[in-house]
Structure formats: C-alpha cells, structure tokens
Design brief:
- Helices cover 43% and strands 8% of the residues.
- It is mainly alpha-helical.
- The longest helix has 15 residues.
- The chain is elongated.
Length: 155
C-alpha cells in the first residue's frame, strides 16, 4: 500500500474512507475525520454523532483536543447541589455531544481538504456494501428484526 501513512479502524469500509483521503493527498487529520464520519454509518453503535471525541495531533508540537460533551447551557451549577454522583436517570447526567464539533475543529486547524470532501468520501466509500453489512447483523437482534417499524428504522 504505502510507506508514509497508515489507517486503522474496527470496520474495513471506514478504513477505506481514510485510505482514500490519504491517496487524494490528504493528511492524517483528513483521514481520521473521514473514518470517524464513516463509522457513524457503518458501525453506529460504536461511534456516532451523539458521542464525544478526543484527539492528539502532532505538527512539530503536541496538541490535545478534548471534545467531551458539555452540560447544557441552561443546566446551572445549582441544579447539582447535594449530588454525590452523576445520576443514572434524568437530564442531569446528559451532555451535549462533542464529536461533530471535534471534526470541525480538527478540519479548521489541520485539515488539508474541506469537510465536504471528508463527508463525501466517507459516505460514498462502498455505499452499496453498507446496507449488506447492517442487514447481515439483523439476526443479532432477535425478534426486533421481525417488526416492520424496527426494520424500517434500524435496518
């Protein structure tokens, strides 16, 4: 393949999106963002727009990005008075997802290509294979796959 770059994901189609970015002349950030976007489609249970993200970038200097979710703006500190742990139910434990904002931050600072290209590459990479992969996993969900509503929304 190559000697100056590598990509790796838990899903081969997402890795292809990263490889295509590198082949087109993109850098590691372009590839990583394209793969993250692709994973939201081909492996949504492990990576999605509702998740958080963390990144380290080396450009001669080490940079760290913490895109973990913030509390909602209207949820003020007084709402947490008396709590000793994050509640397991209700809105007090919910954060605003940071994944998409991390993609934009990475693109703006280090990406060579526009974010539109990353989205296009990620979504067009073997798009026909995606439905086969997701459809093939339908048996793992038992009777849920027999529901027309569930099949329409999840498969």
């Amino acid at each position: 393949m190559g000697t100056r770059g590598a990509v790796a994901t838990s899903q081969p189609l997402a890795a292809m999106a990263g490889m295509e970015m590198l082949y087109a002349g993109g850098n590691a950030v372009d590839a990583a963002v394209a793969m993250a976007i692709a994973l939201t489609v081909v492996e949504p249970t492990s990576n999605g727009i509702g998740s958080d993200a963390f990144a380290f970038v080396w450009d001669g200097k080490l940079h760290g990005l913490n895109a973990s979710g913030l509390s909602p703006e209207k949820l003020i500190l007084e709402h947490f008075q008396g709590l000793t742990a994050v509640p397991q139910t209700g809105w007090h434990g919910v954060t605003v997802p940071g994944a998409v904002s991390s993609w934009r931050t990475l693109w703006e600072r280090w990406g060579r290509f526009s974010h539109q290209l990353a989205f296009t590459t990620a979504t067009q990479t073997h798009i026909n294979d995606i439905s086969a992969i997701i459809g093939g996993k339908s048996n793992r969900f038992g009777n849920v796959g027999n529901s027309p509503t569930a099949r329409c929304q999840y498969f």
